Amino acid sequence: MESTTPNPTSTAAAELLTGANAKLLLDSVDAFLFDCDGVIWKGDKLIDGIPETLEMLRSKGKKLVFVTNNSTKSRIQYANKFRTLGLSVSQDEIFSSSFAAAMYLKVNQFPPQKKVYVIGGEGIVQELQLAGFTALGGPEDVEKRAQWKSNCLFEHDKDVGAVVVGLDPDINYYKLQYGTLCIRENPGCLFIATNRDSVGHMTDLQEWPGAGCMVGAICGSTEREPVVVGKPSTFMMEFLLQKFNLSTSRMCMVGDRLDTDILFGQNAGCKTLLVLSGVTTRSILDDPSNKIQPDYYTNKVSDILGLLGE
Amino acid sequence: MEGFTTTTTKASAQPLENADVLIASVETFIFDCDGVIWKGDKLIDGVPETLDMLRSKGKRLVFVTNNSTKSRKQYGKKFETLGLSVSEEEIFASSFAAAAYLKSINFPKDKKVYVIGEDGILKELELAGFQYLGGPKFGQQEDGEKKIELKPGFLMEHDKDVGAVVVGFDRYFNYYKVQYGTLCIRENPGCLFIATNRDAVTHLTDAQEWAGGGSMVGAICGSTQREPHVVGKPSTFMMDYLAVKFGILKSQICMVGDRLDTDILFGQNGGCKTLLVLSGVTTLSMLQSPNNSIQPDFYTNKISDFLASKAATV
């Protein structure tokens, strides 16, 4: 679809990627945006054929960008992960939701003398620090436990002006309580979610609860809705566009999740390709209750290589 | 939250000026506990005398709490420790409600219940004859909490016989428990998702608010993209249950509570009279705020005002 306007309500059925339409797709885009979990890797295992496919795309002059909702790592840490897996990707090509959270605070002029409480991993803390903000919580609060004796008051820093919530496998009651008090009691405190993915492939063998879980917990205790900076919000696209002088219609978003990756691509006016190597199966795509139809679908990224006869 | 709405535009709540009239007009008083009878482990002033007075007037007293950490029996002990004589049969905690709900739908005894919550829920399930797993110490090793190692080859197994996941307040909440419940709900066909309650905050100590059951329930909603069946207030399940059990008409009941979106809504949804006390989480300004659309019939400072009004009657 050559449309430059987003068409999120399109329900024309997704086309299976073939030799013919794969060639057309390649000719019509200058940049491929890849999700990571379930597309490039599963946990710490690379999905088959990825290195060769990415190399082929680069050799054809395509720009490659990696847009991930997984906030546990910073861009630098992701670049390291890519390197460990034998792929050469620079941090400028990576847009993680951890980076997005820090950028959201920056573009909205969050005062540097205010603090940010993090329910999430090292990735968020690092990106906040890189952007010049003071981060509390994160991995530091993993071992903390709340006390509830009569004379014990659970204290929280009154200077916290924002709570950022992302994927946190070390979630505990202490963090929930700390974040809840900040949001409920510090006037004007922001509630930011890196993303709201319900589950994801944190390991190669099965899905695990995603940030949607931790965010849901804080929604439950504060009765507030967060600002979401990750997919399907197009916030990260602003930064992408600053880096690449391209129209979004010349981009293809490749992802495994309909309600984040594909919706993100559609909202931004990109072409969209769903891969079935992650959380979405063919039957979920075809189910009548599914309203999100990508332009194309295929089993995995390396199908592009195969279909083009490369 | 359940989608209950009040069907009539409510007049503003009236300050309770003539308690005797209210007392005479109802047969049963339902009391919330936290913020009404006690705060943390401290009894609120004048409660024993007030309850005695109501009993002496032949009123039935019932205690309905969303707090699922204790069973009815354990609550009975708490009342006793505080010097109040209240029997188990008069207490309806959301822990009991979860078990009673499963009973009411004939939840098969060969299926299991997975619990994200504390002891009270486990005890009530056991009393009701259900097989359960989970609870506060679930997944813990001897030396502390189970650490999840999200590395290649790690697979969490879950019991395929779990037919219901019950979620309530859990101070020992962790990722392991969330994953277990998530797998049951997403992968066991027909698995129920039941919430004891969805209170955003609760008064664990009398000094401040603490993240409540709504937090744990919100977490599971987030990972499963499903909404739970709520058995605690403001759902009327417990009201319907005790109306049948005691053979009482709801119009003969007055609900007394400190929270608008659970206690008062519960009373209104059930068709009872409602009395808000300001001895708990709700202040007068919250009640009178333009943002508040829940108006009880009456409000007063605390339940012992029943005694003061009586004395003040001309």
Automatic annotation (TrEMBL), chain A:
InterPro entries: HAD-like_sf, HAD-SF_hydro_IIA, HAD_sf, PGP_euk
A Pfam family reported for this protein in Swiss-Prot or TrEMBL: Hydrolase_6
Keywords tagged on the record: Hydrolase
Record EC number: 3.1.3.18
Top-level EC class: hydrolase
Catalyzed reactions: 2-phosphoglycolate + H2O = glycolate + phosphate
Protein family membership: Belongs to the HAD-like hydrolase superfamily.
Protein name: Phosphoglycolate phosphatase
Species per Swiss-Prot/TrEMBL record: Hibiscus sabdariffa (roselle)
Source organism phylogeny: Eukaryota, Viridiplantae, Streptophyta, Embryophyta, Tracheophyta
TrEMBL record, chain B:
Domain of life: Eukaryota
E.C. no: 3.1.3.18
Enzyme class: hydrolase
Annotated catalysed reactions: 2-phosphoglycolate + H2O = glycolate + phosphate
Coiled coil: none
Keyword Glycoprotein: no
InterPro entries: HAD-like_sf (IPR036412), HAD-SF_hydro_IIA (IPR006357), HAD_sf (IPR023214), PGP_euk (IPR006349)
Keyword list, A-Z: Hydrolase
Record flagged with keyword Hydrolase: yes
Family recorded in the similarity comment: Belongs to the HAD-like hydrolase superfamily.
NCBIfam families named among the record's database cross-references: HAD-SF-IIA, PGP_euk
PANTHER family, alphabetized: 4-NITROPHENYLPHOSPHATASE-RELATED, HALOACID DEHALOGENASE-LIKE HYDROLASE DOMAIN-CONTAINING PROTEIN 2
Protein name: Phosphoglycolate phosphatase
